[in-house]
From TrEMBL:
Domain of life: Bacteria
Every Amidohydrolase-related domain range: 86-449
Protein name: Amidohydrolase family protein
This protein's record includes keyword Signal: yes
Organism: Azorhizophilus paspali
Keywords: Signal
Span of the signal peptide: 1-30
Xref: InterPro entries: Amidohydro-rel (IPR006680), Metal-dep_hydrolase_composite (IPR011059), Metal_Hydrolase (IPR032466), Metallo-dep_Hydrolase (IPR051781), OTAase-like (IPR057744)
The keyword Iron-sulfur is assigned to this record: no
Length: 456
């Protein structure tokens, strides 16, 4: 039942839309599809609803409700999806595109073919909206426009233009000058924001810290204060890379709008929680990030599953299978301990912030390095959030309704009339067993079934 979403189908799609338009004017429903007898997990955190129907018309959800109560227009196509759950397409608030290819990273990877490959992979894994949170080159504007207009390949795309780092400091990435600013003065920082503002980014990104004491310089407070001030003057919100509790407090005090990683050095305290709540700032944990440093070398059972292996490019699969690479990765017990503790602290902090009612979004930093694997990372993040003590419904809400709200998007993220029909159809019941999010049977985007099972 999969309709392949190939670029060559554009003309056919245009034709289909034309036919649908004509049909609509005669009262028929050529483009109506009903997903029947499904379990709806609507993305708000509410309990799932059995025996439901989702009616899709063109790009949107036209109706959702109990099977018996949703009236189907004449001619609507019906799909019996008994036993399946339908949730909103997942939304990443923190990923990167065009950074990696195979086992390598570098400026040469920021090209259309590679980015489209990654956007397709996100979509195949049910991540239908992706935020490329900085390090974007000039090609970004065009790809984003294509994605928004519906002619793009793969997931819909949002992003933070280049982003602002530190001279001889963070981020320690091999990127082109046209992918990142490293201002040395407040005036240079403001100028960088003004340049980006002209290109209408969705967010402004800053990297403030020393990557766990591996870099010599942090961003000076006067620089990030200038960036935040100038961004706000242009109506833009600032997302900050953080690791340390102390930086998180200072950034929130300076007006940062989004903490783009979880606090990992210390437990969050009341001072930070109250400040986050008082300012309405968002928090993104990226639990998967630190785990990805080591978990493919320790190789728990799930790294052998087809669902994981399907996400690997051949060169990366070969690396993970190489005993020498695994030994090297785990060679430094101090590093391993820091990564493992980082995950644990991050998980406890996530639980605490959710319980406190802070605004929490969803992201993994997927795509920033080869080991942060697009599409797979988001499902792992759901599992890690549940392992942290969230209910599956809470975890799913972070990745759908909340993540849309973080981006200020009211057209997606929940299953309700009028919303985009970006949907993930899975076997089983992820509202009970979060791992069922991986049993992907189909992905719908803007009312079209764009992808089938990840594991054929
Ligand atoms: Zn990042």
């Amino acid at each position: 039942m999969t309709i392949p979403a190939k670029r060559t189908s554009r003309r056919c799609l245009a034709g289909a839309l034309l036919v649908a338009g004509l049909a609509a004017s005669f009262g028929a429903a050529a483009d109506s599809v009903a997903l029947r007898h499904v379990r709806v997990i609507d993305g708000t955190g509410s309990a799932s609803r059995e025996n439901s129907t989702i009616l899709i018309e063109n790009e949107r959800i036209a109706a959702v409700g109990p099977d018996a109560q949703v009236t189907l227009p004449e001619g609507a196509r019906e799909l019996d999806l008994s036993g399946r759950s339908v949730l909103p397409g997942l939304i990443s608030n923190h990923s990167h595109l065009g950074m990696t290819d195979g086992t390598g990273a570098g400026a040469q990877n920021y090209n259309r073919g590679n980015i489209e490959r990654q956007l397709r992979q996100f979509q195949r894994y049910g991540v239908t909206t992706v935020t490329s949170l900085g390090l974007n080159g000039p090609l970004f504007q065009r790809l984003r426009a294509e994605a928004h207009s519906g002619i793009g390949v793969g997931a819909d795309l949002f992003g933070a233009d280049r982003g602002i780092g530190v001279p001889e400091g963070a981020p320690p990435m091999n990127v082109a000058p046209e992918q990142l600013y490293r201002p040395a003065t407040e005036e240079e920082a403001r100028a960088a924001v003004r340049e980006m503002a002209a290109r209408k980014p969705d967010l402004i990104k800053i990297w403030v810290d020393d990557f766990n004491h591996t870099l010599s310089y942090k961003m000076k407070p006067e620089i990030y204060t200038a960036v935040i001030d100038e961004s706000h003057a242009h109506g833009l919100r600032v997302a900050a890379h953080v690791y340390y509790l102390d930086d998180a407090k200072k950034l929130i005090a300076a007006g940062a709008d989004i903490l783009a990683h979880g606090v990992r050095d210390l437990p969050v305290d009341n001072e930070l929680i109250e400040a986050i709540k008082a300012t309405g700032a968002w928090y993104i944990s990226t639990l998967d990030l630190d785990e990805a440093f080591y978990v493919f070398a320790t190789q728990p059972e799930w790294t052998q599953t087809p669902f994981f292996r399907q996400a690997l490019q051949p060169a990366l699969a070969a690396q993970l299978d190489d005993p020498a690479w695994r030994r090297h990765t785990l060679a430094d017990p101090k590093k391993l301990a820091i990564w493992e503790q980082g995950v644990k602290t991050n998980q406890a902090n996530l639980k605490r912030l959710v319980e406190a009612g802070a605004k929490v979004g969803f992201g993994t930093d997927s795509g920033a390095t080869p080991l942060r694997i697009p599409g797979f990372a988001e499902h792992r993040e759901l599992q890690l959030a549940v392992d942290a003590g969230l209910t599956p419904l809470q975890a799913i809400a972070l990745a759908t309704g909340n993540a849309a709200a973080l981006l200020g998007l009211d057209d997606r993220g929940v299953i309700a009339p009028g919303k985009r029909a970006d949907l993930l159809v899975v076997a089983g019941d992820p509202s009970q067993t979060i791992a069922d999010s991986q049993k992907i049977e189909a992905v719908w985007q803007q009312g079209r079934e764009v992808s089938g099972p990840v594991v054929p």
